[in-house]
UniProtKB/TrEMBL annotation:
Pfam families named among the record's database cross-references: MDMPI_N
Protein name: Mycothiol-dependent maleylpyruvate isomerase metal-binding domain-containing protein
Gene Ontology molecular function: metal ion binding
All copies of domain Mycothiol-dependent maleylpyruvate isomerase metal-binding, residue ranges: 19-142
């Protein structure tokens, strides 16, 4: 898929994909216990709190591009690790702003602006990339803090369909690590599509 192509399966479901990804992010953040904010994450250079800040900042950046809010007050790629208020409040505000921004996008809007280097993208593609950011960081946070994976194969399938056409140029900026190849000794997974998505995004599934 090219960045300008839209998988036909996404047109009727992109709003549901966004909602599911937002639930995953909020639930993962809600499950972080006191004292876990400084724990290491699959994002090797960032702690749990830094990943939360990054995820919230990315959502606020999408919201600003869609005409809601002023964007993050900090650089999402240089998160401080210190949150004013609570992490849950930070994420809730970010998700509410971005959800409101997407709700204002009509179903017949062909393209929308994004904070990605790609610029404007077809609406379902842009929405699912926004969802991908929330969902994969929900997974990072959950795994770092001993929670179950918030992803399932249905959601991962939609995310992967878009990621394959968009992610490659982003690796050069460090947004995603190189693909992690499956090992021959890997045991069968109950969520193979989730594993494929995580490996494609530079993460080791288990």
């Amino acid at each position: 898929m090219n960045a300008t192509d839209t998988p036909t399966s996404l047109q009727p479901v992109w709003r549901e994909v966004l909602a599911a990804s937002y639930r995953a992010l909020e639930n993962s953040v809600a499950g972080v216990q006191d004292g876990q904010g400084d724990d290491a994450t699959p994002c090797s250079e960032w702690t749990v709190t830094q990943v939360i800040q990054h995820a919230a900042g990315d959502q606020l950046a999408y919201a600003k591009m869609l005409g809601i809010g002023n964007g993050p007050a900090y650089d999402p790629f240089s998160p401080s690790g210190a949150v004013d208020g609570t992490a849950a409040e930070l994420v809730k505000d970010a998700v509410e702003q971005t959800a409101a921004a997407w709700a204002a996008v009509s179903d017949d809007t062909e393209t929308v602006p994004t904070p990605l280097p790609h610029g404007d993208l077809p609406t379902p593609v842009a929405a699912v990339m926004c969802a991908l950011d929330a969902a994969v960081h929900a997974w990072d946070i959950a795994i770092a803090t001993g929670q179950p994976s918030p992803l399932d194969d249905e959601l991962a399938g939609h995310l992967l369909a878009v990621a394959r056409g968009i992610v490659e140029p982003l690796r050069q900026w460090g947004a995603y690590a190189p693909v992690v190849e499956a090992e021959a000794a890997d045991s069968p997974s109950s969520t193979p599509v989730v594993d494929d998505l995580l490996r494609y995004l530079g993460r080791t599934p288990r």
